[in-house]
Amino acid sequence: MAGFALKLKTKSGQMVIKGLASKDTIFELKRKLSCLTNIKENALYVLSGYPPKPIDLSVNEATLESRGISSGDTLIVEEKQQNIVLSVQQNARLEEPRHHIIDSELGCPGVLMKMVVPADNSCLFTSIGFVLSGKVDVDNSPFMRQIIAESVSNDPDNYSEAILGKPNPEYCHWILKPDSWGGAIELAVLSNFYGLEIAVVDTLNAIINRFGEDQHYAQRVFLMFDGIHYDPLYLEPFEGNSIQTMFLTTDELVFRQAEELAREARSSKQYTDLDRFTLKCIHCQELLSGQIQAQQHAKATGHMNFGEIQ
């Protein structure tokens, strides 16, 4: 088919795939993707659509058309993992991957829970990676930082010094550093890039901040923010083995669960008030005062569990 082209997104960047047609086979697609990404054909994990969903690559003779792949589509390519960490306990165990997207307008009956991700200055990016893929992968950070830097660099009018707090080129250099923390700007960029509403449960104020709300996206994901650290939220079903990390924006039941989580977290003081607090680090008992000290301590030690001193 003349003009047939696909967009490809990987951790190393983006490109356009040409030379295929709708009648070409999955075998030909896998061969081309393997060549472009250096991932072995049997280890390719390919997602497409909004929200991104896995494409069945098991039948080599199937056509791209039969798998719903059309010219102009975006393919997100990752390397298949044999095991992923899904336990929310401190001593996490390795389990077989579980599906993380439920194809149901009614949603999945269950309990909204927090998946704890590492406190390594990239918790925001790891959290977004989890709600997209269903697995904790600390290697998501460089790819997402590159997305943000390119988006901001390409739009200097909307991302001016007044918005960024520093000159556009300086910000782009800064966000690429592994010790730079993500926040509202980065959430807005990634919401736009992935075509998802990102709802952030703010445990300090017991509210939910919605990034991409004005774009009327069909899908929503949830993160929790305690003033310093981001963790992803997922729905643990009452029955079955499939967690859910993506939800319809029309799903009011799960949104109400998120609101209840925000209230519960605030009432039990599961937050860090960055303006008015004296804290004691639960790990090492060090006393801290103010936003700068808390952030410096968290960055230096990786300690993220604080208790407020009245």
Automatic annotation (TrEMBL):
Pfam families: OTU (PF02338), OTU1_UBXL (PF21403), zf-C2H2_OTU1_C (PF24560). Residues 112-223 form the OTU domain. It is found in: Cytoplasm. It comes from the Eukaryota. It catalyses: Thiol-dependent hydrolysis of ester, thioester, amide, peptide and isopeptide bonds formed by the C-terminal Gly of ubiquitin (a 76-residue protein attached to proteins as an intracellular targeting signal). InterPro entries: OTU1_Ubl, OTU_dom, Papain-like_cys_pep_sf, Ubiquitin-like_domsf, Znf-C2H2_OTU1-like_C. Its EC number is 3.4.19.12. GO terms for molecular function: cysteine-type deubiquitinase activity; zinc ion binding. It is an enzyme of class 3 (hydrolase). One of its GO terms (cellular component) is cytosol. Keywords: Cytoplasm, Hydrolase, Metal-binding, Protease, Thiol protease, Ubl conjugation pathway, Zinc, Zinc-finger. One of its GO terms (biological process) is endoplasmic reticulum unfolded protein response. Hydrolase that can remove conjugated ubiquitin from proteins and may therefore play an important regulatory role at the level of protein turnover by preventing degradation. This is Ubiquitin thioesterase OTU. It comes from Zootermopsis nevadensis (Dampwood termite). The lineage of its organism: Eukaryota, Metazoa, Ecdysozoa, Arthropoda, Hexapoda.
